[in-house]
Amino acid sequence: MRVTVSDVVSPSYFVALAAVELGYFKAEGVDAEFVLPPPDGSKALRAGEIDFLGASPYVAFMDFPGWREGKVLCALSQHTYWFLAVRAALGARKGDVNAVKGLRLSASAQPGMALQRVLKIGGIDFARDNVRIVPPPRPTDHNHARVGAQALDEDLADGFWGNGMRAEYAVRRGLATVLLDVRRGDGPKGAEDYTFPALVTTEQLTRDHPEAAAGAVRAIVKTQQALRADPALSAKAAARLFPTEEAGMITELITRDLPFFDAAVTREAIAGASQFAQALGLLKGPVSYEQVVATELAPLWKG
What is the pLDDT, as a whole number, of residue 18? Predict the structure, then answer.
């Protein structure tokens, strides 16, 4: 079985990577290898080129019309996990959405759509307030952790939207401060429910290989439990795939996120993700919880 995530050098989907690297998939009888993400994880999942994908549901299901034929097995953690960071020199006050006025903000395509929604609901008019979303610089390899800092360094942007590793790297360099931490309540009401990190597979795999699907969920739950008990295990899990500097940061980031380590997929989470995908034009209508979630595996979420 091939496991991958949308972004490798990141805390966002780290539990899936750690479940392979720390041997929890193997312990549950699932012969799994972690592979670097293909250019389009959703297409690769649908084509059977990968078996398990750690991603936001709205990204994982991009190539599943109406979100059909794909299944969310469990949550890797809870709630929207993106940060908006801006130049430290701006002296912006955390939580002040108006601080983005006149700024160029770096964000990749799909997450950039989320940023637009966060800011518009927060009262920002992009034309009136002269706010622009610009593409991030291209990383040289699978490490996207430094592209936010790079955008500031090269004066391509005045801020960036990204995961916790991207924000932390720029903050530690003294380049940026965090303006919005959506998961912890910054931004408009409801933004924390736009998405969540999920372990996703195909409906066919859950049907043809139910033991592998169940083993994957058990592996995720046991990894979450192990990291809660000893966050330092995250450095061991990151050693093979992370650059040295980012590997030295992951334990602190995972420790911060431990309160969100819960494998349960709530009806509210799916409703929020579905409404968000509809608002972005990625889903034509609401989807039922039972259609999207492998509910037969729900008893495994608590371990």
Answer: 98
Structure tokens given for 195: 């998405």
Whether this model's pTM surpasses 0.90:
yes
Domains 2-79+195-300 and 83-192 alike in fold: yes
**Quick one: tokens of 24?**
């929890």
Q: Strands 104-106 and 132-134: what pairing?
A: parallel
- What helix, strand, coil percent values describe the chain, rounded to 5? 45, 15, 40
Instruction: Give the fold, CATH level 3, of 2-79+195-300.
Output: D-Maltodextrin-Binding Protein; domain 2 (3.40.190)
CATH of domain 83-192: 3.40.190.10
Instruction: Let me know: does 1 contact 49? Beta carbons within 8 Å.
Output: no
Mean pLDDT of the chain: 96
DSSP state letter for 303? -
Helix (H, G, I), strand (E, B) or coil at 131: coil
Q: Where are the domains of the chain?
A: 2-79+195-300, 83-192
pLDDT, tens digit (0-9, with 9 covering 90-100), for 183-226: 999 988 889 999 999 999 999 999 999 999 999 999 999 999 99
Q: What is the pLDDT of residues 108-148, one digit of tens each?
A: 887 888 899 999 999 999 999 999 999 999 887 788 999 99
Helix axes 267-279, 109-121, angle to 10 degrees: 90
Position 264: which residue type?
A
Compute the distance between CA of residue 164 and CA of residue 30 in angstroms, rounded to an integer.
29
| pLDDT band, residue 280 (cuts 50/70/90) | confident
